[in-house]
Amino acid sequence: xxxxxxxxxxxxxxxxxxxxxxxxxxxxxxxxxxxxxxxxxxxxxxxxxxxxxxxxxxxxxxxxxxxxxxxxxxxxxxxxxxxxxxxxxxxxxxxxxxxxxxxxxxxxxxxxxxxxxxxxxxxxxxxxxxxxxxxxxxxxxxxxxxxxxxxxxxxxxxxxxxxxxxxxxxxxxxxxxxxxxxxxxxxxxxxxxxxxxxxxxxxxxxxxxxxxxxxxxxxxxxxxxxxxxxxxxxxxxxxxxxxxxxxxxxxxxxxxxxxxxxxxxxxxxxxxxxxxxxxxxxxxxxxxxxxxxxxxxxxxxxxxxxx
Length: 307
Description:
Blueprint: E1 4-5, H1 7-14, H2 18-28, E2 34-35, E3 41-44, H3 45-59, H4 64-67, H5 72-78, E4 83-84, E5 87-88, H6 98-110, H7 114-128, H8 130-150, H9 156-176, E6 185-191, H10 198-209, E7 213-221, H11 223-232, E8 237-241, H12 250-262, E9 268-271, H13 279-284, E10 288-289, H14 293-306
Parallel strand pairs: 6-7, 6-8, 8-9, 9-10
Antiparallel strand pairs: 1-3, 2-3, 4-5
Helix pairs in contact: 3-5, 6-7, 6-8, 6-9, 7-8, 7-9, 8-9, 8-10, 9-10, 10-14, 11-12
């Protein structure tokens, strides 16, 4: 199934205002988004590409009337490369190769080229969609950067730069992909003393893409605060990321406390690189261990189906 985006997300991806997108749709028929049951617009990846190409063609001196009804293929031939908000990108491909994207990002990190890194990630997010971007680009990239740093192949400054650019990209995607209307709520965070929160941010994005209104709480929160946030927002799920360290004696106590406060049967999921090290505590607290973002999506979908 094609990726779908809200008009707010499309505006961010293309650099066009929401009003311009609506005008081009209504007056010129540039794109025809599908409508949800509540009459909300939803745009496909191809719609996003066409809007970007039409914008580029107009900036090159063509009129909207001359290019509005051209096919994406014709527009690609007319506009090479395709500029987007924030700077030029490589010409759009039918679909980004996640492995190639990760390699390009690592090359940009070696040069401390944050702008190039951000452009590569933005293009991948548009072409893959936010869910696949998180699972197939952001997560493997962060793993690769961590491994390169541990092997002394990257300086700490390079590793930090990648982490911050990825964080910025994920945060923008999370904001742009929050569902509209009456959606179930999930909260995402890390436990007390755990400061690596990009896994929780990716979990929050995956939840948003899956139709959940997500509250990303950030890092290092005690169990009672996470539980308070869940109750205060009437959340139907809590998502915890455990990345580092793998031997924190506080984790079993925090998970036990979280379960005690939220009660038996309340949906809690734990994931992240360090989660297997706490398998006993996770099991004893009747918490679901999600091994990756795909299994997290399954966990969230099951909750909605059983609601």
